[in-house]
Design a protein that fits this description.
Arp2/3 complex 21 kDa subunit ARPC3; 2 strands; about 70% helix; disordered C terminus; mainly alpha
Length: about 180
């Protein structure tokens, strides 16, 4: 039987994303475990609860709670160069959650959905970075932006996707999301 996903799940998802943001390696765009948490929450709870959890996380940070990487918070972080990646988590949650609900939670389904979700986040975040960077420092090429904001993160994000897919497989029955698990 499929369990109902509600407010406690959304709160737990937002809290997981916040805790994972604190596990950070500072860079132009910090390496954090946020993408792992967003993928895991959306895969386990579906697109609606995944979106709500990410939106809750973003709102908590916007009002000043230190939930973003480096224990930062405030609306200024969202308007800064990395704000587009934070907003891009909404796209990640949507892609992963929709795929998990529609096609199941097998690794063969989740991994491509998570790759798509992270790519959507990269696109939105990098476009945002280029706009903010250009306003502050002058034009930046797409290659420079990708070199700063995407290329260094491909391998870490691939590992986070694999971890999230593996844990989803293990945790889905506990979350009442065991449907469409078989058939690997």
């Amino acid at each position: 039987m499929k369990k109902q996903i509600g407010v406690p799940h959304i709160a737990m998802g937002a809290a997981l994303i916040a805790v994972c943001s604190w596990l950070s390696i500072p860079m132009t765009v910090p390496v954090t475990m946020q993408t792992f948490a967003v993928c895991l929450v959306a895969a386990l709870f579906g697109w609606k609860a995944g979106l709500y959890a990410v939106a809750c996380y973003i709102m908590l940070g916007a009002v000043g709670l230190p939930v973003f990487s480096g224990f930062r918070g405030g609306f200024g972080v969202l308007l800064g160069p990395t704000g587009g990646y934070i907003a891009g988590f909404l796209l990640t949650a949507l892609a992963v959650g929709l795929s998990a609900e529609r096609f199941g939670r097998r690794p063969g389904v989740l991994i491509p959905a998570m790759v798509l979700g992270v790519l959507l986040c990269y696109v939105f975040g990098t476009a945002w970075f280029m706009v903010v960077y250009t306003r502050a420092n002058g034009p930046v090429s797409i290659l420079t932006a990708l070199s700063l904001c995407v290329f260094p993160y491909l391998l870490p994000d691939a590992l986070k996707i694999l971890l999230a897919a593996f844990l989803t497989r293990r945790l889905a029955p506990l979350a009442g999301r065991e449907g469409r698990q078989s058939g690997d």
